[in-house]
Amino acid sequence: MSDATMLVQEVAPRDGLQIEAAWVETADKIALVDALSDAGFSRIEVSSFVSPKAVPALRDAAELFAGIRRRPGTVYVALVPNPKGAERALAARVDEINLVASVSETHNRANMGMSPDDSIAGFARIMETVTGASVLTNATVATAFGCPFEGDQPVDKVIAQVERYRSLGITGVTLADTTGMANPRQVERLVARVLAIVPAEHLTLHFHNTRGVGLANVLAAWQAGARRFDAALGGLGGCPFAPGATGNICTEDLVSMAHEMGIRTGLDLPALIALSRDLPRLVGHEVPGQVAKAGRPCDLHPVPRAA
């Protein structure tokens, strides 16, 4: 279908595990990140340097970064909420920091305890903290495709927030469908607008599968020119501040679709399926990914014996 490569960025260790009720041991997280590195990911979101009181499931971020085996060519990412978090991330030798602000006023106050303007003012202070450090920067526009409290967000408002990120010197931009409200036509239109100001190599799409159209939205974004996508092994994750939101699009489901369409990812799909099948042991419940349950389309079955 295309000579381009789809860059799949794995977010399960952070975005996937952050809302899990059961504690996942640090050694198990390290083993998961190392296995994801071996599967070929060029970017893995490992953890977040937030307050342990706010997100207790990620309270071992520093230990996790200290323990992982760093694969050459892989960028290890951390979510950073404030300058103190940025300092901790730099001390942990994070390769990239990701900042998040909702375009929705209501969602940002629920999620971050402040207005979007205040969040972005904080980004300026974080950028001052990391100036001179060899760390990449990315910022996410949360609720870019809709807010569960306010509904649709004006496209011009999303574009203005992207432009503010770029004016601060932030290189990468993520458009996040935080609540799984996006539809393919909406995605195609917004991605086309944003690609006019952000190069494809610096734009990431982050979809949730809340209403079952996550992969359809990926395809719409791909056809509009996007090439980078977040996904979570097994479809883990969800937003604690978005009522009804379910997990991220599933990594192995996305990779399987891409490979069946002739789109390269550079990822080891059988390894991903094996990792996904082990997730219930790790998190204590079934996960929503489908390819790990059904197998790849090329995994044929023996012909049933006649009765």
Automatic annotation (TrEMBL):
Fetch the InterPro entries from UniProt: Aldolase_TIM, HMGL, PYR_CT
The answer to whether keyword Lyase applies is yes
PROSITE patterns, sorted: PYR_CT
What top-level branch of life does the organism fall under?
Bacteria
Q: Which UniProt keywords apply?
A: Lyase, Metal-binding
User: Which ranges does the record mark as transmembrane?
Assistant: none
Q: Which Pfam families does its entry note?
A: HMGL-like
Q: Where is the Pyruvate carboxyltransferase domain?
A: 6-273
Q: Does the keyword Metal-binding apply?
A: yes
One GO molecular-function annotation for this sequence? lyase activity
NCBIfam families for the chain: PRK05692.1
Give the similarity note.
Belongs to the HMG-CoA lyase family.
Q: What is this protein called?
A: Hydroxymethylglutaryl-CoA lyase
Q: Which organism does this record belong to?
A: Methylobacterium brachiatum
